[in-house]
Records
---
Amino acid sequence: MSQNISKIVSQNLKAALLENVGKLSAIGKVQSLADGVVKVTNLTSVGFGELVSFGFKNNNLLGIVFDITADSTKVIICATDGEISVNTPVYSLGTYPTIAVGESLIGTIINPLGEVLQGKSEITSGVSLFKFLVTGLQSLSVTPTTAFSLLLGTQLASSEADNTEVVLPDFSGLDASVDFYTALFSYFSLVTPTTIDLDFLLEDDEDDFYFGDFFAYDLWIGQSKFLVERKAPGIIVRSPVNEPMYTGLKFIDCLFPIGKGQRELVLGDRQTGKTAIVLDAMINQSAVFESQLFGYASASTGFSLERSHLFEYRKDIVFCIYVTVGQKLASTLQVYNKLKSTNALDFTTIVSTTAASVAMLQYLAPYVGCALGEYFRDSQMHCLIVYDDLSKHAVAYRQTALLLRRPVGREAYPGDIFYVHSKLLERSAKMHMNYGGGSLTALPIIETQAGDIAGYIPTNVISITDGQVFLETELFYKGIRPAINVAVSVSRIGSAAQVKALKQVTSTMKFELAQYRELEAFSGFSSDLDIVSRRIIHRGARLLESLKQPRYSPLLIEFQIVLIFAVMNGFMDDLSLSQIRNYETFLYKSLLSQERGLLILELIRVEQVITPDLSVFLNHFLTKVALAF
């Protein structure tokens, strides 16, 4: 079996290598270099967006073709290490940027090149591994045929013993001027041999593990490679967004529900809690899974599972991708530590670029994160991706465009800035069951200036997404946190992403809040209000107070339903505003400590509707809680 696989792989590699070498035969040269933009001549066999490598010694120094003219090609460098000078050879790698994806990257911080910056990954970086192998073979001065024999794990001696013919690539027809090792590196590091049958790997003994098995083993443990920029799913393979994706925030889950596959924009000024909202949503995915696996009381005790056991439940988990663009490294590490302390890191991968990263890496970061998320979406799983933030992403793209001397438009952004964001966000989707039923939900972040949501980038992204959550500075300083402006925020999916029980308790909630806001403003000019108006203000103040939530404290949806039921049915009317927080804590403890409370939570989770009998049961339970409080 192993020899047959080696024969097939060898034949495929011969054709692939010859094709790759054909592209490498036209080697360009660096003509000039300035501000990260390299002008290359004689590089005729490249396409827009393809990867190039600057010489063999610097083959981990990659660039992306971003401009093609009749006599030259302009390349944006993807890294700052390595030295480039005039006349440095430039090789086309014959492929577009790819990224290693899979569950094994979970729990790590990586950069857009796939290099692990924090945490331990089971995936060996493709570029590093192949560079090591090829450099090692070069130091041994082996022939190309022997190199392929080693890399494919093929032993001629064992083939002779088995009387099996081993077909190795024939390099006699290759141009002698072509750097074989560069061709070998570019093929093995950037092309995934997905046609390999992995059954033979399981039949091998532990000692019978050769270089070639690395490639198959990487696939076996979950490593594959996705293009960084992929076409968004078409309308036929999509499914309507109707499955809730709970954030754990009462404001959002009750008023602006988000569904799996939706794109909900989070925007607001600096220091208004945008990152806190998305972190709560990520932490809540861990809490939801934890409650399903261990019960509601597990939230206070925490949990720990070995990775091998954890992924037995991966179809029930919402995995998370957190992409930082131009953020401080200290801020990224704070997010990493917070996710780790709340067990959410067990389901999360962070793609990080700092303000010191080159513009091209900042531009690529969201697309790399999206490719990681698409792996889960296309593997019948669910994923939540956060882009923090697309304002800095737009600035990075503007910087790149200005360096290339492209025509500018409004606010000096290039004319295709809308397309840059739309092709990214359109990749978020809920797939039809015939295509796996997975989903990729996006929470992009935009930073506004002085609360201006009519700016160029904010309006662009608003028109792309399926709703927005607007955080207002004035509300933030009033102590209303999360500082969500109910009048401006919206979810275009609406109640389609809510279970029936939540619809029942929140059906008039937004209307009552709007009435409260209007009458509250009016009451400042007149103290003579009728009884109905005073009742609306009284109830609205308690409703608003109950929606406040400290950061990093997401609430399971069953608790939210019970709380809102209590507010809307008048169980908090006799409490002062200062007592609301204490009552809320007492209510949660009562639900977890009493058998009736746990039964209520379980009935809501299973039935997902408040039946007349459950309504009576809830009223009786809340009456006892009110008396005990």
---
Amino acid sequence: MRQRLTGVKVGLSTEPSSTLSASLLGDMMDTWRTLGDTTLATYRAEFARQGSPMLAEAEAIHAAARPHSALALAVMFHEKKYDTVTETIPASFHNPLAVGKPEGGIGLNRWERYDSYAEAATAWRERVTSLTYKEGVDARTTSLAEWIHVYAPDTDGNNEVVYRGVLRERLAAFPLDVAPRPAGPVGSAGGLLNMTMGLIPLPGFDDEAGTFTKDENVGMNRLGPRSIDVLFFHRALGYGARGVADWLKRHDVKGLTDWVIDPETAYMIRLVDIKGTWDDMSGWAQGPYRAPTPDLQRLTAKYGGSFDTINRHGESIEVAGMYGDRITDACKRDLAQWTASRAQDRGIRWDKFPFTPDGYSYIHGHVEACGADYKICPGPVVWAFINDGELNDMVREILRAAQTGGAVPHPDDNIRASSSGPTDFAPPVPIRGLMDVNREDSGSLAAFVTTEGTTFIAVSDQVIAIRDTPRLQRANPGGARIGPDIRAGEDFNPAWIFAAEDGELWYLTPYWTRVRVRDTKRVGVDTNKA
């Protein structure tokens, strides 16, 4: 993006300051957004020490750079020594942060020009925190090293190691501004709102992103850098976060969501880490795009009308269990924490939630994209949690506390033990051999015969229960149950059909549930798992 400026050397500050400890600084480098602010007095002292033309605008520059005034000052020092080094970018450009034009350019034409230094600081802050500038290329970085790799890469003639070293030295020398002065728009009750990205933490989770692979067009596509413009809620129709996650990770499964959460224990697993790069997997989660709501039509229009928008620019979470299964207070709490963390990073004010700055809703159910005639996902229980206002109220309170200067809620980071659901149900019984069927086999495999002689025929049916029907461990109507009954009207997607010894036809689901075919009605073809 940018090119290293000649004549810039590493310098050392001589003024005294209450500096950060090395250990604290190291911790903060892990997340550049938490580096925070240095004082206005530091800005004035630095500019005066260097004989900078920026001194006259010190107060306006400092205010414009908040809440990242410490990082901005360090970058201004390294790039142009507070605009006293002008061989590459003239002082008349008022561009001490060496902000390049988005489209690039040659010679002087590659650099942005500003009417004032405060305007430059504002433009820099907006760019590095924007989720829409080049798909959030700066904002989606976490560590200082990652951000430098985007902002001043080696490929543009910089030396990222030196750049990082200079910034660390400068940041260590700058005192923290500990005065409580949140930055952001004015809230409905008065006062400024703190809209800093990363302010609200995610709930505790197991991170399994990058631990598995899927082939293109088998449950996911690499459509380009992803963003989190909206959130989608799903119901897995399978038990236990662990089992659902393992199923979605399989090579042959034509579906993938970004997160899975257990409805009983709130055990949470991340399957896809959205980094805003070309390696991002866009799972087959929200499709098919058949009956979008007006809000989702606006979202799609924002990104050029592509139907891929709902998977590429929406983050999805799968709540394990069936449509009618309860979700505990622990699960609700973590769903609200996850939603609030994402809403904060999306720039949504607490008093405007659930609406985005673009005016459409931030939270959606799968049914709002595919239509109820295809699937009622996420089902009545999760849908009531959303639509009855309980989720909205919980999220608003988390956002309000963080943005108005109250205590930021920090969830319990202890990883919770996995749970497969209520303990009074029998465990599922897999079919030996079918567990090992991989994508290469299943692509052409029409049937599978067990060593005992039972033939399983592959199906891609979408079915609904026509009556309350038990979810059985084996093909025996009086046998053990592995979960609550499937309620009349609930839909699910079996993987195989087979005949028991008495000739009765049964479905076998991906979660090893046996369901009598006569208790169901086929309503279509399952083109997307989730």
---
Amino acid sequence: MNKVHIFLTVALIIAALGCSGGKKAAGDGVYVGQPVSEFISIFQKQYKVESGVISLEGDDYPTYDVFENEELLFQIEIHSDRPEIVYRIWIYSPKIKTDKMIGIGSTYGEMKSKYQISGVSEEIRLNVWVEGLSATFSMSVDYQPNIDWGRLNKETMPESATIQAIMLWNDDVLLTTDKRLIARNIDKSVDAEVFTAESFMEDTESTSIDTEYAIRLADKTVLNQYSSYHGTLDENSEFGADVIIANTTVRDFVFFMLSDENRWEPEKPVNLETGAYYQLAELTPEKPFVTDELEGWQRGFSYVDEDNVRRFFSIEFDDNGAAYLLEFKAIGWTEENCRVPDGVDELISAIVNAFQNQDETVLNRLLHPDFGVVFYTMPGTMPNVFLTDKISFTDIPPGYTRMPTDVVITDYEIRYEQLPEFDCESGWSKSAGIYCYFSEATETRRIANLMTEYMEISWEAHETKIIDNLETKNHYTITVVSAEPPERMDIGISLEFTITLIDGKWYLTIVDIRGYCGA
């Protein structure tokens, strides 16, 4: 049987512990934050300690490697900015066990019987965390054809999955010389620094961000410290997510997408002419904002600081894959287009209500006289576009027998965030509600090109003009997830439409009735 080896991510494992601390008691072992000289003096009495390297995401980092009879037990990772301090500890030998006798080679089933599983992450690699132990376990999973590898979580992970490596990232765990992982004896009555890998990085690489700006970045593992958050988090995404945390409350927070590469050159302001994807009247320290990492998209945000100055930032990544903030100048973005335009909420609500009430009169009043409406359909195995000058609940696009009018909505709040996705087995990735996302393009031209290539469709001049003009406008795409399951999976499962800014006014331009899980 083939084996899929999934190794630990280089991304920082964050465990912000607050302000409490204590004097670090001397111990017969090694811990994160320990002076390297102390570690060496303890372990070289019993083991062979050599300089080495660890390869993470294609880069090499300095280590001290500890051997017993030529077997590598563990590595001590050293950060270049503070080489005198133990940064992280990587464990590879099955001889090293926790106090509950879990170690390399232990199965996920054994872990569940000894610990409460606190989380599973697959943002880059497959990692597991447990309650009561500041460690990250990377897993090796035997290939099984019936497993949905894109949706593994703590309930669906095979119990046969085995621990491949363990990483310690907090100073409250001691790796003893007799190869045990135990809680460190810390005197909490004496104030002292609490050391974590994440706090170390803040001290070295991110000081300017945390002190100069009112906003800082964190990994999604900090979310267990908050009761709720803004934004969107796709737990099943193959990509990661970043948490934007306000050090102090900021006003008029706006999240958007970037495309200009000249943000790297401060003397050349970035041209931002698009609207907001997500906006908040204020972002507070108590409730952070979460944003998924999206392939091919560059994310940014803006806020008004305490001096009433609007500031712009992009989320960038260094050579090691660590996220950081880059402030840039912006042009083409005014306070008027730095928020969802007036009237958009009302227009979306009117469209949703009109579909529910099958009110053709209202819907047709919301169409541009020169554009009409474009239907996305799926009469077979390939998407189609169907252009018409009006919406009718009796004159349905070819191949369909009804319109999506059976969507049940109990919450009419419009959420400006990434749209939910649908899976034919597990359903929607988000709960019922109205979701709205900004875009600068539609699928219309792409689908029309497919129809021309494979169906030999010839477009009239006025149809070509409509299709091409839609690709030069700003849009909001809306997905309405029903609070009740549909009678059929291929239509009526949701209401999906697009509104477009034409000549300074927003119009209904596209209705997507392709449905899901059909032919």
---
Amino acid sequence: MSHTKSYSLIVLVLFISLAFSFSSAFSAAPLAAVAGSDASTSTATQIHLHVVVTANDDGSQAGTMTDSAIASGIQKANQQFLEAGIHFTYTPAADKETKNNTLLNQDVLVPSNVASTGLETSEVQHVIDADDKGHIIERFTGPRDSGWGQKDLTAAASAPLGYEPIGYTSDNGGMQHVVFVGASPNSGKVYELYYEQGITTNWTYQDLSASAGETVPAVYFPSPIVTPDGTEHIFFGGNDNHVHELYGHTGSQWYKNDLNSAVPTAPLIYAISYLRSYITYSGTAFTLHVVYLTPSGANYHVAELFYTPGQSSNWGANDLTQLSGSPDSWGSPHPFTYRWQSDQYIVTHGIDHHIYMIYNLKGEPNWQHADLTSLTGAPLALASPGSIDTYLTDDTIFGWGEIPHVVYNTSIGHIVEIYYSNDLGQWVYKDLSHDAVGAVPGSSYNTAYTTNSRQDQHIVYAGDDNKLYDLHSSGNTIWTVSALADITEPITYGFDPTSYTSGVGDSYSVRAARNRLAVFDHPHDLVIFVSHGTDLQYNSASKLNVWSSNPRTFSFANGVDAFVAMKSGSDGSDLAHNLGHYFHLLNTFGPTPNNVSDAIGMVQQYVNVQGHTFTVGDQVFDGDKASVSDTPPDPGAALWQSVYGNLCSTQNSLVLPVPGLTGAPGPVPFMYALIPLRKNIMSNFDQSCPQLSGLPSFTPNQITRLQAALVIGNRQPLLYWPPIRFIYLPTLKK
């Protein structure tokens, strides 16, 4: 069952009106009330820009964009954005800096709207599990692979046998780690398998317990996390019912810490509880958290240990079930946090098999809880303690932050997702197994992760037919299922997988580094990065990511990240377009055909294969139909060039005859009149054509969406601080 609702501009306008009622409480001027041709610089809302030109750590491969190019780009942007009541301010002497930082300068963050150019992300997907013999097995696939490969990591590294593997990455996604607990004769030891792209030739292992001098055996799943200073931390529950910590760096000396001995009041861990660790942020400070189950009578509570380096002298402890008044838990806790925030959310499996969320919002003294099952009407969870996972996706349609997702198995073997709908302003659920045609029931554990810059979703599970399946979707729209591999061997421990993505210059690490600088150093500025970047090449045969030295050839931005990225050597002509993306506007164009034949084929595919009605076949070219309703289908500049031989042609329309459409009357081709808004800021036509002079750069719906990003969306810090939170954070209402 799924709950959906179409985008409503009326509701959005009401939100904007409500937000303006708050604006008098802030010192910054409200968004200019007058937008359109009569807006002026004096009445426009002023947005301050800050430019960061990057280079590698040694100063090599520096990004370049001259002061005149920056000024020209800002001038063009101001000419167009004045229609929306916005004016950008910038002073080169004060607002431009150079930073030598390889991570900031490298770049493989490829948004989906340029995927058709042949550019791609670097992400390789990994699913890790232990077989019945105690071997750690990796299944993986890369961006150009048609299927999945498989590798026995235990055999590759000549490592001890083990179970309960957890995978993660460090060093900007270039180093892969798999932490596991040893099996007999090394029972309870904590080991690490690791592989570094371009450094090691094969997987290697390290005995972390021996390195740290840890003699307490681990009982169950370890939980790894890497703090911003690069230190790796491994938490585990020992056979003494204490929470233990191992910390250090791969291949070097490791150290130990008994957290229950350090905090005598800390609750003991349930012997076979999963631990989960996570980080919250408050300004430049970060806090480490560990959550786990602790015995409470016949049932279990959720306990928390927490520590803020540089501010805390010791770890602290909480009983979150008691503090929040939540029902007792039956399954292990699963936390999630929003990017760069100190709010905490812990998803638990209650003894009544409801999905609960225990949460604490920054600035509020008390922990609270919500029954997500009752709020959404979702089915009960399977009576299995590990059938839940959580993850976040980025809201690329509405641009109001991140979307939390909770996935779990039901008693009939379906995979169900509860998620927060920014469109509806409430929690809803989907039965993914029902939506994905041909999905095989699965009653085992699952693992969830994202790819494509946190836009595409994957849930890997073992079907009841003993095959491995991937439920996947792009943007939580249409869910499909595909088989990964056969699980041919008996599974003594049960299929209990973990997953991660890797790749040199991992896109999420690039985003994290840039967002840290923008959010922490310039919270009230619109930050523009100028970076050399690199074009990615993927070697499918060797399953390795190989980087070329060519600079990135495109600029980009999106409605989630706190920055705009400009290509090296840019003349600034595409700055206005990418500022549009920053303010939540999507491309007006979809796939861009090179000629009439390409265009006909795209419409036929959209109607005959994807099943759309022939009368709306031209919507295949409408790139922003999910977010605004007043921009017509836009086939792009290449088709105009092919037909009229001139991008600046005076011809404003093109008739496309498409034969052989399902449902279309008669043998005559169906005619589509394509009339794109060639002057629109989000098109890819040449904005400098004199024939387009005087035409509007925005539609009314685009201006409403753009203003919403500033007034009630995640761009509020450009106007005032703190942001209004009634939209950005999930509200708990039915």
